[in-house]
Design brief:
Layout lengths: L1 H5 L5 E6 L4 E10 L2 E6 L9 E10 L5 E8 L1 E5 L5 E4 L3 E9 L2 E3 L6 E4 L6 E9 L2 E8 L4 E2 L8 E7 L2 E7 L4 E2 L9 E5 L2 E3 L15
Parallel strand pairs: 1-3, 2-4, 3-5, 4-6, 5-8, 6-9, 7-10, 8-11, 9-12, 10-13, 11-14, 12-15, 13-16, 14-17, 15-18
Length: 208
């Protein structure tokens, strides 16, 4: 994956994986181009594709990339955060997970540090047909936007998905108070289990 990311002749990276397979990716840092990791949909009695990986970050500079997409995968994150950023610059049209499982995430799905307004921009963040169990966020959100800079995710969609928390003291989505501009959050046909002690608080709707 890293060698394809560094190859200037490859415009985007697409990995097609066999259902029931097991893979190790390690950390994927400063991704400069679109990434699609798509496994076969498992047949009846067949296990989902399993991927063990560390955290991931994106760095596109002035460029805009189309997507970072995962599909039909049981993801085991070996670091505390899945998507983790520290002062990278990027613009992504869509980050999405479809029919994925994630168990025992140590902290957040999205941890963000940024030192300039609009340095990190995502147009759409979509979770569809996914299952998250034993979320262990503590004082962080499942998606934790920057509380210091305007680093927006303009459209957040949770659809047909299950969220189960072991420890969630704030909210599912945090940091919206630093965001400017239009914001859309859609929660459709989802199940939320044990979002305690946050008291089923989904998000902070106080954008500037």
């Amino acid at each position: 994956c890293k060698s394809m990311m560094s190859n200037a002749e490859i415009t985007d990276v697409k990995l097609f994986l066999k259902a029931g397979g097991t893979y190790k990716l390690g950390r994927q840092t400063d991704i400069p181009k679109s990434l699609y990791i798509i496994a076969q949909e498992p047949k009846e009695g067949e296990a989902m594709t399993y991927i063990e990986m560390g955290n991931m970050s994106i760095s596109t500079g002035e460029n805009t990339i189309d997507a970072v997409h995962f599909e039909n995968i049981n993801i085991k994150v070996t670091d505390s955060d899945f998507l983790k950023f520290k002062n990278q610059f990027f613009h992504v049209k869509e980050i999405s997970l479809k029919n994925c499982d994630m168990h025992d995430l140590g902290r957040t799905m999205w941890y963000q540090e940024v030192n300039a307004a609009k340095a990190q921009v995502v147009d759409n963040f979509i979770i569809e047909d996914c299952r998250f169990f034993n979320l262990n966020h503590g004082g962080s959100g499942f998606i934790g936007l920057s509380t210091k800079q305007d680093a927006p995710i303009y459209n957040i969609v949770f659809r047909n998905s299950t969220f189960h928390a072991k420890n969630l003291t704030k909210a599912l989505i945090t940091g919206l108070s630093s965001m400017t501009g239009d914001l859309s959050i859609t929660i459709e046909n989802c199940t939320f289990i044990s979002l305690a002690p946050a008291g089923m608080t989904f998000f902070d709707l106080s954008p500037k």
